[in-house]
Write a structure and sequence with these properties.
Blueprint lengths: L8 E2 L2 H22 L8 E6 L4 H17 L2 E6 L6 H9 L6 E4 L7 H9 L11 H8 L17 H12 L17 E5 L6 H10 L3 E5 L3 E6 L10 E7 L2 H10 L2 E4 L18 E4 L16 E3 L3 H24 L1
Parallel strand pairs: 1-11, 2-3, 2-4, 5-6, 5-9, 9-10, 10-11
Antiparallel strand pairs: 6-7, 7-8
This protein binds nicotinamide-adenine-dinucleotide.
């Protein structure tokens, strides 16, 4: 009948994002002096061609954050989605625009994959271009041999990596690139936009990742003793409650992104003291999550916006180096 004497802590994404704001603003001041001497603020444009209220709210947060941090932002609504491609091409050719993003889903099918590639790589703040994705999956961190131009990472997976660093799950005593060595994580989502890239990034950093989708479970690792330079993937079988429970109870990190209101990750499956992070728009953990979790991050959106702006600064720096070199 004894009550647990310790309850985990909730860490809000607003407190985490504050720790990155300062770094971004400082870098922004440096680049606006040298790279944008005309004094113009870096300009981000977001295209909205759907009626998703979540996208509208994400757009208004982006606007607010941009204004607070010294960026210019415009939301361009495209009521007829068949004109979106032309609008993106116009923005690609407009020298005043530094960054472009699209609120997905637009068509909700393979056409959305095409639209991602229409954005010019030099303006792709979300890091969705094929080159950036391929670099990420292959653990390639630079765009050039001289290692001056950093590759851009997709911003939601990057935000979750930064959250794990903030929570000190990344062990800074280990060498860069291996800082999740010895850790196990389970990720409930394997979408191409978040879950799969996130599993790859964490595994590339040395973590053993169980990647769960609605059908099956896969394991992402760099092999025994981190013998591979990039992650390998192994199928573990169907997503059954038994296998899910077994792997969850081994995991030091539980990350959820199930886009369903009724879905709740079973609290009894959480290893005592695990770190739990939810990036879904819906609450994927039950109210009693902190009876098991040591740290609980209920949402990640604000950190994602910070990463969007961090990517934007990096794009401007890369473009400056390209022109100079
Ligand atoms: P998606 O529909 O493309 O993918 C959902 C994934 O969850 C799939 O891999 C699917 O197989 C898996 N899944 C669904 N039900 C499951 C179940 N019961 N068990 C195991 N796996 C299950 O969605 P998405 O684009 O990845 O978005 C997911 C959620 O994350 C949405 O709520 C979205 O709003 C949110 N999101 C948040 C951010 C952010 O910055 N916080 C960014 C992008 C998306």
């Amino acid at each position: 009948n004894s009550k647990p004497s310790f309850a985990g802590r909730t860490i809000l994404s607003s407190s985490i994002s504050k720790s990155f704001t300062e770094e971004i603003v400082k870098n922004l001041e440096t680049i606006t002096k040298s790279v944008k001497p005309n004094g113009k603020k870096p300009y981000l444009v977001g295209f909205l061609a759907n009626k998703d209220p979540a996208a509208e709210s994400y757009a208004s947060w982006t606007q607010k954050t941009c204004e607070e941090m010294g960026f210019e932002y415009s939301l361009i609504k495209v009521p007829n989605k068949d004109f979106l491609e032309e609008k993106i091409i116009e923005a690609n050719n407009d020298d005043d625009i530094d960054g472009i993003m699209i609120y997905f889903p637009v068509f909700g099918d393979a056409q959305d994959q095409y639209l991602k590639q229409v954005i010019k790589i030099e303006k792709d703040v979300e890091g969705l271009n094929h080159t950036y994705y391929q670099n990420m999956y292959h653990n390639v961190r630079y765009l050039d041999e001289a290692k001056e131009l950093k590759s851009i990472l997709p911003c939601t997976p990057l935000a979750i990596i930064k959250i794990l660093e903030y929570l000190k799950v990344y062990n800074s005593l280990l060498p860069l690139g291996n800082r999740l060595y010895g850790k196990k994580a389970i990720i409930i989502n394997r979408s191409e936009i978040v879950g799969r890239p996130l599993a790859a990034l964490m595994a590339n950093d040395g973590c053993t990742v169980y990647s769960v989708d609605v059908n099956n479970i896969q394991k992402f690792t760099r092999g025994e003793g981190l013998k591979f330079s990039k992650h390998q993937v192994e199928d573990l079988g169907a997503n059954t409650p038994e296998l899910l429970k077994q792997l969850s109870l081994e995991s030091d990190i539980v990350i959820t992104g199930v886009p369903v209101q009724s879905y709740k990750f079973p609290t009894e499956n959480i290893k005592e003291g695990a770190v739990c992070i939810n990036f879904s728009f819906y609450k994927n953990f039950s109210d009693d999550v902190k009876t098991k979790a040591s740290l609980y991050v209920p949402s990640t959106g604000k950190v994602t916006i910070c990463m969007l702006l961090r990517n934007m600064v990096r794009l401007i720096e890369n473009n400056y180096h390209k022109k100079a070199g």
